[in-house]
Design a protein that fits this description.
This protein has one domain: 3-Layer(aba) Sandwich (Rossmann fold), CATH 3.40.50. About 45% of the residues lie in helices and about 15% in strands. The protein has 8 helices and 5 strands. A 5-stranded parallel sheet has the order 1-2-3-4-5, sandwiched between helices. Strand 3, helix 6 and strand 4 form a beta-alpha-beta unit. Helix 4 packs across helix 5. The longest helix has 19 residues. The radius of gyration is 16 Å and the shape is globular. The relative contact order is 0.14.
Length: about 200
């Protein structure tokens, strides 16, 4: 289950869903902004910022629950993982603490502090119920190295099966917005995602 960045259901995530399917993992991507912006894909002209401010964690997680159910019904998979980017990384990590039937959670440069008036992944690390993979940029101005270290330490203290990887020299959104500039890091992140999913939902279909 793919949780997009702040742009919502941007074309990149439709293509990414197909890439996961080609790799053997049926995938679904959903949009955050149907309640405030109506339905439809989100292109370059979509002004997402006002709609991001209206998001609530509980409604995003409710939509994630519905998307997971749709994925199961349409594909027959037995286990579900979340894969999120930026805003979606925050919600993917949050899903690890909120969704009871989640088998794995992947977050790429997800904000680790509180957002939308709700505790962030660091604060909720001890509540997480499934394995976690975190992928971060080494020069991400939105997420400090100390936050990543703190998150890693909290997961370790809680006994959560997890992997944290930092890509030196890469910024925020290196995978979804700067792929061409950071092709080596992106290729490694893709391999890590597939390997992680293989270990934790490999027999899903």
């Amino acid at each position: 289950m793919i949780l997009p960045d702040v742009r919502g259901l941007y074309p990149f995530y439709c293509v990414l869903a197909e890439r996961f399917a080609q790799a053997g993992y049926p995938a679904i991507a959903f949009d955050y902004f149907g309640r405030t912006a109506g339905l439809g894909p989100r292109g370059e002209e979509f002004e997402y910022a006002p709609h991001v401010q209206e998001l609530q964690v509980r409604t995003v997680q409710a939509d994630a629950t519905a998307a997971a159910q749709a994925l199961r019904e349409r594909t027959g998979v037995r286990t579900v993982a979340t894969v999120g980017f930026c805003l979606g990384g925050f919600h993917s990590f949050t899903a690890a603490a909120v969704l009871p039937d989640l088998s794995a959670a992947v977050g790429a440069y997800g904000i680790l502090g509180s957002r939308f008036g709700d505790p962030g992944p660091i604060a909720r690390a001890a509540e997480m119920r499934c394995p976690v993979l975190g992928l971060f940029g080494g020069v991400d101005q939105a997420i400090s190295p100390s936050d990543v270290e703190h998150f890693d330490a909290r997961l370790t203290e809680a006994g959560i099966d997890h992997e944290i990887h930092i890509y030196a020299g890469t910024p925020h959104s290196f995978f979804d917005r700067r792929f061409d500039q950071h092709a080596e890091a992106c290729a490694d992140a893709w391999r890590r995602m597939l390997a992680f999913l293989g270990r934790h939902i490999g027999d899903s279909a």
